[in-house]
Design a protein that fits this description.
By secondary structure, this protein is an alpha/beta fold. Helices cover 50% and strands 9% of the residues.
Length: 529
């Protein structure tokens, strides 16, 4: 096999003629620790998020100490021409050659190669990278050389570095770092007109890339202010797994009968997340776990929709769409939701129909997995992620999940009382066009007695459907009151059928029989034909 070594990598050891990039306070502190490590430690791993400035720090070290920097493209080029994937061979060739020519070798994004080798089941030689990395560590020590790796995700690494390297976290960006990058991009005078603490409070996990991008977006807008920056972050920089264009537009003011729930969510979730910079001395923190429980159709999902539009890029959903995934991909998707929410703090994770998910035999251990995820939110960096779970029956929820400290706020959605039902009716009836005629409000109220908000919306929708059906068949439309009576009666009948089915007492006109018996088989065959 002929794996070539890119000659370009050996040019990395020469200092750049360009002026070295200035460093933010966090980057400068990390550089000082790196200097100490490079002087005395054989193997260093620099941990930092995407866009945190790891390459910038390596370039500064090369300016001071010399050495060779190996990027992903160098390894890929070294593996070109092989008749099978040979990333680990490419890595070994370029690093081994670099160790012959320089005292310090810097290798970028090692976790990407480890991830391919560790988790790609189709990779022909899984775990062979372990041997490659072990050999490189032994070579560096034998020759008295230094290896410095940069890594974004430590969990993706192979275990050869554990106990053999010093792991050095670059550190999360602070308000002072935000000020540094805003001033560098916008100029000191203009940057100081922005409330950096408010911006940091709204989105404390931005990368250097994102800060530079938002500055580029407002650079030519002289009227841009704090709110402009927050809006840009919310709509362009922060990534939710919910497309608001596909979520019905709901505002808390539109949720009739939800005043108390809306106030508590505002008090214990929205305010600590959105306005904590104004009350920094109080150390406001949102409730970590919230249980929203109540019978079907009482508005639990509507609360989620309202929160989605309120939080925008800071709202994440776990529902049946993720649950429909194969068990192998379910947990990685759930983990990804939590990871993305942590990057967008402060944020909300909304788990719809949690009691149903917990009881499913299709995905085993979900309750234990969520316990781990919730406990992981107790750290300072993830402390502003709130998890809202909805349930029709809290009795079906695992007791360990509901214990104090995990679910701190219980909110019950109930059937609307007379006043709330009147408000819901008024809101729905106001949407009816005049062409449908007049109706008796009191009669409609009586017909919908005991209905929830979803039932009332269905009644109004069915009234319109009945009217259209008559018009299409050239039948003189009936009075609107009669349509309301028919629609309400049908929905009431459906609710009774559902209750009977849930209780196991529903009787059908045909005997159930054996699904595989002659009668059932005949029906199946006819359907296929």
């Amino acid at each position: 096999m002929n794996l070539s070594i890119p000659s370009s990598i050996f040019a990395h050891g020469h200092p750049s003629a360009a002026t070295p990039a200035e460093l933010s306070p966090t980057q400068a502190a990390a550089l000082e620790r790196l200097r100490e490590n490079v002087r005395s430690v054989p193997v260093t791993v620099l941990l930092g998020g995407v866009g945190a400035g790891k390459t910038t720090l390596l370039n500064r070290l090369i300016e001071e100490f010399g050495g060779i920097r190996i990027a992903c493209r160098d390894v890929l080029q070294a593996a070109e021409g092989a008749n099978h994937p040979a990333y680990e061979e490419g890595l070994h060739r370029v690093v081994d050659a670099a160790l012959d020519k320089a005292d310090i070798v810097f290798v970028e994004d090692l976790d990407l190669f480890c991830f391919t080798n560790k988790f790609a089941m189709a990779y022909p030689r899984p775990y062979y990278l372990n041997t490659t990395l072990q050999a490189l560590l032994e070579t560096a020590r034998a020759k008295g050389k230094r290896l410095v790796f940069t890594v974004t995700d430590r969990l993706k690494l192979v275990p050869q570095l554990d106990g053999r390297a010093v792991f050095l976290p670059l550190g999360a960006l602070t308000p002072d770092d935000y000020s540094f990058f805003l001033e560098r991009n916008l100029g000191v005078e203009r940057a100081r007109q922005l409330d950096v603490k408010r911006i940091f409070s709204f989105a404390s996990k931005l990368s250097v890339y994102q800060l530079n991008e938002v500055c580029a977006l407002i650079r030519d807008d002289a009227a841009a202010n704090d709110q402009t920056v927050l809006d840009l972050l919310d709509t362009r920089m922060l990534s939710s797994n919910v497309s608001l264009g596909e979520v019905a537009k709901v505002d808390f003011s539109n949720l009739k009968g939800f005043k108390e729930i809306a106030e508590k969510l505002q008090t214990f979730i929205v305010n600590p997340m959105m306005f904590d910079s104004r009350f920094a001395d109080l150390g406001l923190m949102p409730k970590k776990g919230i249980l929203l429980y109540g019978p079907p159709g009482t508005g639990k999902t509507s609360v989620g929709r309202a929160l989605a539009h309120r939080m925008k890029g800071k709202f994440f959903m776990i529902d049946g769409t993720i649950f429909s995934e194969s068990p192998d991909s379910f947990y990685p998707k759930v983990r990804n939701v939590f990871d993305q929410a942590k990057l967008s703090t402060p944020s909300v994770i909304f788990i719809d129909d949690a009691d149903v998910l917990m009881q499913s035999e299709r995905v085993h251990g979900l309750n234990r997995y969520l316990l781990t995820m919730l406990d992981g939110l107790e750290t300072e960096t993830a402390g502003k992620v709130a998890v809202i779970l909805t349930a029709m029956d809290p009795n079906q929820m695992p007791a360990a999940l509901l214990r104090a400290g995990r679910v701190e706020l219980w909110l019950e959605t109930k059937l609307p009382d007379a006043r709330a039902r009147q408000e819901i009716l008024d809101s729905n009836l106001a949407k009816l066009p005049e062409r449908l005629g007049a109706y008796d409000v009191e009669r409609v109220k009586a017909a919908t007695e005991g209905f929830n908000a979803a039932d009332i919306s269905r009644v109004v929708a069915d009234v319109k459907a009945l009217y259209v059906a008559d018009v299409i068949r050239d039948i003189k439309p009936a009075t609107l009151d009669s349509y309301f009576d028919r629609a309400a009666e049908e929905i009431r009948r459906t609710k009774e059928l559902i209750a009977s089915a849930q209780a196991g007492t529903l009787e059908t006109s045909e005997p159930r029989g054996n699904f595989y018996g002659p009668k059932s088989r005949k029906r199946v065959d006819q359907t296929v034909v």
